[in-house]
Amino acid sequence: MSHDESREVRPEDAFDVRAVDAWLRAHADDHFLPLPEGEPEVRQFPGGASNLTYLLTFGTGEEARELILRRPPSGAKAKSAHDMGREFRIQSALRPVFPLVPRMVGFCQDDEVIGSDFYVMERLDGVILRQDLPEGLTLSEDQARDLCERFIDVLVALHEVDVEAAGLTDLGRGAGYVARQVSGWTDRFARARTPDVGDYATVTGWLAEHQPEDVATCLIHNDFRFDNVVLDDDLAIIGVLDWEMATLGDPLMDLGAVVSYWTQADDDEMFQLFRRQPTHVPGMLTRAEVWDRYAERTGRAVPEQARRYYEVFGLFRLGVIAQQIYYRYFHGQTTNEAYAVFGQVAAELEARCLRIIETGDGNARADGPADTAGADA
Asked: Is the separation of the CB atoms in 279 and 258 below 8 Å?
């Protein structure tokens, strides 16, 4: 089975390897020392439109050690949007009570090393499912369903973490999470808007008008999808990655984010272009079945109208993230041409939100402009 493959570092994402090597040898957790002699070979993992992820390989052969470095993207201006210290702290605190978190190696907040904060953690060697199944991996329908169910069960386990035992009670602001998210992401879009995109006004107005009360407050991942989990060769989940958006909040908002990424085999051609995980293969759960599995494991049954709300918010949030990425490209903060299409991504996500608001179906095509006056979540 093919494991996740790293690539050569993009020139604009390169950093001072010698400086990182020196810093690690002086500051790494004792568990990881000593490191093999010589500077590490550095490669970059795919993705990285938000925080960037690199593979550091020290030594060769049986003596080789592999670590992961995480840092903000090139051109990022606001540390608050790419808080490496927060991400490091969450994982350090969470590992004793949620062992699917990688072990942390060290956190650096000295900008003189590579020009930004960064942290290093152990590498969990395994399979990461991205857009399509990796070469050499096939799934029967039963295997695909079982994998989906285990995936949702891990999210349920995360939502059940004792945040007091983990020392993470100060991570969130308590009740009112849904309202804060709607207003906060609406403001983020306004700040990231460029002259060539829509304004999401109908979507944000509907979200503000129909927002539900929080159902609970618990630890949520906020970006839980297959390309953020690591599988072993038996398809057991051995790690959960990318904790930059984790917080204390409403678990159904977390599940809504999961569903917003979940592309089914019967989705329209445009939404298929957004697929980042192989949720289209035979046997994978549908979005409705994702909700049903979560309800079965938690006792939190969510009616159809409420599911629409959480899905629309999840898609809106993705649209804002796409627009934030496009904003950096539009204003010349990055030269990565892959970011040029993100403005179109934001526009299509707005259209999908409008279709769900109007019809309940993101694939439906309305004959005229959406009329959301009577929509109810």
From this structure: no
Name the pTM for this structure.
0.89
3-state SS, one letter per residue, for the chain: CCCCCCECCCHHHCCCHHHHHHHHHHHCCHHHCCCCCCCCEEEECCCCCCCEEEEEEECCHHHCEEEEEEECCCCCCCHHHCCHHHHHHHHHHHCCCCCCCCCEEEEECCHHHHCCCEEEEECCCCECCCCCCCCCCCCCHHHHHHHHHHHHHHHHHHHCCCHHHHCCCCCCCCCCHHHHHHHHHHHHHHHHCCCCCCCCHHHHHHHHHHCCCCCCCEEECCCCCHHHEEECCCCCEEEECCCCCCEEECHHHHHHHHHHHCCCCCCCHHHHCCCCCCCCCCCCCCHHHHHHHHHHHHCCCCCHHHHHHHHHHHHHHHHHHHHHHHHHHHCCCCCCHHHHHHHHHHHHHHHHHHHHHHHCCCCCCCCCCCCCCCCCC
Which residue reads 């995109």 in tokens?
Answer: 197
Q: In the chain, what are the domain boundaries?
A: 11-122, 141-359
Q: Can you read off the two tokens belonging to residue 224?
A: 């839980």
Confidence band for 48, pLDDT divided at 50, 70 and 90: low
Distance from C-alpha of 290 to C-alpha of 19, rounded to nearest angstrom:
45
Q: What is the pLDDT of residues 55-96, one digit of tens each?
A: 999 999 988 999 999 999 875 544 555 789 999 999 999 999
Q: Which CATH number fits domain 11-122: 3.65.10.10, 3.10.20.340, 3.30.200.20, 3.40.50.300?
A: 3.30.200.20
